[in-house]
Amino acid sequence: MSESDPMEGDEALSEINMIPFIDVMLVLLIVFIITVPVIYHAVNVNLPRASDAREVVTPETVELTIDAAGRYFLDRRPVTDGELMMRLHADAAKDPQPDLHIRGDRDVRYERVAQAMATAQRAGIRKIGFVTKPVR
Q1: Measuring CA to CA, how many Å separate 4 from each of 7, 11, 12, 13, 76?
Q2: What are 91-136's pLDDT values in tens digits?
């Protein structure tokens, strides 16, 4: 026995044998290739299409006109003070509630416009707007 022979004695090998590791990985790959289509088995169905956009419902508008003499017109029909309260109360119960647009004559007393706004508030109308003519 000579001391120059490296294969001699109890020296450990420093290299890992990769062949069994590669064999195990190939077997696992084949198992996954076979089982994945079975896991995701589904019935083909032609599903209907639907839009995900919200439907915008615009409420109707009720137009209250007050002429120069202080008379009320609801949607261009003359109404008395008592009828105005009943009609606005009926409109307030609608879903969605309509917007009230007040068109007051330039020469009407402010008191009549204020009475109309108070009547609308007591009736339960939540949205009140004023219609004006733009200055040119």
Answers
A1: 9, 13, 16, 17, 119
A2: 999 988 999 999 999 999 999 999 999 999 999 999 999 998 888 7
Under the phi-then-psi rule, with left for phi > 0, alpha for psi from -120 to 50, and beta for the rest, what region is 58? beta
Return phi, psi of residue 86, to 5°: -65, -45
- Domains of the chain are 61-130 (3.30.420.270)
- 3-state secondary structure (DSSP) of residue 25: helix
Do residues 102 and 131 make contact, with C-beta atoms less than 8 angstroms apart? Answer: yes
How do residues 43-101 score in pLDDT, each as one tens digit? 777 777 877 777 776 778 999 999 999 999 999 999 999 999 999 999 999 988 999 99
- Cβ count near 15 (within 10 Å): 5
Taking the C-alpha atoms of residue 51 and residue 42, their distance in angstroms, rounded to an integer, is 24
SS3 36: helix
Identify the DSSP state of 27: H
